[in-house]
Structures are given as C-alpha cells and as structure tokens.
C-alpha cells in the first residue's frame, strides 16, 4: 500500500476544500431559487393562500389505475380569508429559513477559504463555526414557530384545527438540530486547537 506523502496529502486537502467552496456556492443558488419558488407558490392563487404541510396520516384513494387505497401525510391546501398575521408569519418562515441556511453556506465557504490559506485554529474560525451551529438551530426552531402561527390561521380559515400538526412540523427540523450539535462539537475542537496553538507559540 502506497503511503501518502505530505505533498499528496496537501493536494487532496486543497481539492477537498475547493470542492466544499464550489458546493457551498451551488447550495446558495439552490436556496435562493427555492425560497423564491416557495413565496410564488404561497400566493399562486389570487386572493388566497396556498400551503403544503404535514397532517396526521389519513386514508385516501390514490389516483393510480382505477384507484388504490393509500395513506397521505402531506397535503396542499388553498384558503381564502386568512388573517394578515398568519400570512405574514408564513412569509417570515420562508425568508427566515432561507436567510439562516444561506448564511450557513456562506460562512462554511469562508471557513474553507481560510483553511485553504492555512489558517486553521484561530478565534475567527471558532466564531464562524459557532455562528453556523446557532444558525442551524435557528433554521429549525424559528420557521417552526412562524409556520405554526401561519398554519393555525390557514386551518381556522378552512374551519379546522392545526394542533395535531405541530409535532409533525417540529419533527421535520430534527436533522437541523442534529447538524447544529455536530457543528457545535467542531466549535470545541477549534477552540481547544486555538488554545493549544497559543500555548505552543508562547513557548517558542
């Protein structure tokens, strides 16, 4: 088995970081496009609000062949007469999630650029990773709060109740909460690395 030389390892690290930067830029574009599409879909029907949300599992007849029994957990609803606060909450949920995730991608790219320049353990990288962790948490909790307010208004306008769907919305954010914790661990690594680097520099 061929051992990795320092030059080969450095080249691979550089390629990995460049890939991360490229992916980050693509993700930003995707998030911007997705957010615009969500806002367009929200007001797709003039005078009404259109939302797609999770609901408790319901038995339906799917339009497959002559119709087959199926279970639906996601529905698209169109309601008129939704109160202004609920509409504003739905807009804020979309914008807040987009801003948080776009910021995460941008800060991740900045970290990659700094690593590319050979800057690893310092306060800036520690601060950036901490910010990314908080933004991931906010991207899960913030939109959940505003979506709940918005969907409550939609369901009331339709004569229903959204209380059963709150946990389902919260559940969708679990991957973001886990990602926030994972990045939080990196914060500890960067902070400890920066401290060790200062100790070493103090001995030189």
How many helix segments?
A: 5
The structural class is alpha+beta
Give the terminus-to-terminus CA distance: 37 Å
Overall, the morphology is elongated
Structural commentary:
It is a single chain. The protein is α+β, with helices and mostly antiparallel strands and 204 residues long. It contains five helices and two strands, in the order H-E-E-H-H-H-H. A two-stranded antiparallel ribbon has the order 1-2. A hairpin with a 5-residue loop joins strand 1 (48-62) and strand 2 (68-80). Helix 2 packs antiparallel against helix 3, helix 3 runs antiparallel to helix 4 and helix 3 runs antiparallel to helix 5 (174-203). The longest helix has 37 residues, at 6-42. The protein is elongated and about 70 Å long. The two termini are 37 Å apart. The model has no long low-confidence stretch (mean pLDDT 86).
Helices and strands in order:
Layout: H1 6-42, E1 48-62, E2 68-80, H2 84-116, H3 123-157, H4 166-172, H5 174-203
Antiparallel strand pairs: 1-2
Helix pairs in contact: 1-2, 2-3, 3-4, 3-5
Please supply descriptive tags for the structure shown above.
204 residues; alpha+beta
Concise synopsis of the structure shown:
Helix content is 70%, strand content 14%. The protein has 5 helices and 2 strands, in the order αββαααα.
């Amino acid at each position: 088995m061929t051992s990795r030389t320092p030059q080969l390892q450095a080249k691979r690290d550089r390629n990995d970081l460049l890939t991360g930067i490229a992916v980050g830029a693509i993700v930003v574009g995707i998030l911007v496009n997705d957010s615009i599409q969500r806002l367009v879909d929200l007001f797709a029907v003039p005078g009404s609000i259109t939302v797609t949300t999770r609901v408790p599992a319901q038995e339906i007849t799917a339009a497959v062949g002559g119709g087959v029994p199926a279970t639906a957990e996601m529905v698209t609803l169109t309601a008129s007469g939704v109160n202004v606060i609920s509409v504003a909450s739905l807009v804020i949920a979309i914008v807040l999630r987009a801003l948080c995730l776009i910021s995460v991608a941008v800060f991740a790219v900045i970290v990659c650029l700094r690593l590319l320049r050979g800057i690893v353990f310092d306060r800036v990288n520690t601060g950036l990773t901490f910010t990314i962790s908080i933004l991931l948490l906010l991207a899960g909790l913030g939109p959940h709060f505003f979506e709940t307010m918005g969907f409550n208004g939609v369901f009331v306008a339709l004569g229903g109740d959204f209380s059963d769907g709150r946990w389902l919305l919260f559940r969708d954010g679990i991957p973001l909460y886990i990602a926030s914790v994972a990045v939080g661990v990196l914060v500890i690594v960067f902070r400890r690395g920066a401290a060790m680097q200062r100790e070493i520099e103090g001995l030189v």
